[in-house]
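Task card 7
Instruction: Convert sequence to structure tokens.
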Amino acid sequence: MSSAYDEERERYLQLYHGSDSNARSGRQEEIRTTPLFSLAVKQQVDSTESQSDGSGPTHPEEDINTAASDIMPQYGLLGFNIEELDDAGQPQPLLINTNAPNSAFICGSQGSGKSYTLSCMLESCLIEDVRVSKLSSPITGVVFHYDLDAAGSVAEAASLCSRGIKVRVLVSRSNYHALKAAYDKKHGKSGNLTVVPMLLQDHQLTVARMLKLMSFDQGTSVPLYMEVIQRILRDMAVMGKRFSFADFQTKLDAEKFAGGQQSMMNMRLELLKSFCATATQTRMRLGVDNGQSVLSMGRPVGGEGRDGTIGLSAGFGRLRAT
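Output:
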């Protein structure tokens, strides 16, 4: 009995890492994923890690431009804690962790700096600048901008183009010309900012997305033509074939509707078609390599009601191009 126990225990112990230096401890993981930390905390973490691996303590005068530790390899300057002063009477720098996923909710009264704060966060993730960050691997950003006045509302996050970041703005086709003219006025646009229609391929369309794009509210009474549309979509889904908008249109054309029903259905279909790409148009990519995409989520011309999408409107702050 004892021998069987010892053999089984030994087999399990081979999977136990214990305090193996190559394994992440729970304490290290907690520090590694913290969203915000001060420069003093980072210096203490670096010093502790250096002592534990035998390389000796780091120097107190180590600043933001020194090599980052393995636990906090990427970060950016977000602001200063003006209530906590160091030994020299200076405010303590606060850093945002750009090496671990996190979420943030920014709130405040008008003019309190919400857009400015969000801009600093975006810059820390997108721009490699040794003056204010450690960022060996800049990431791709996606900003959802929502405003009821879609034709005249410009996302301030697009101003990152003036810092050399490639920015692509996706807009509804009906608002394309108005928004392109507005974005063309952005400072520093040259070669860095493009505005393109947001067009969906057939494989990107689902029943829920199509109903959303047709501004159909399922909480209200369902008109006859919408019941027919939903039935056709369900039947096509049951067949298990790849969705084709052309096939959907053919099946819908075979149905007969009264004059009033037909006109209302055509209006919603035209709204849906304004977001659909043709067979000859290239596939839309959401992300921009080492850049940022801004999705303008306001309702298109002819759309009814709010589409329920909540997004972010970012401002540009901290480092402005001159």
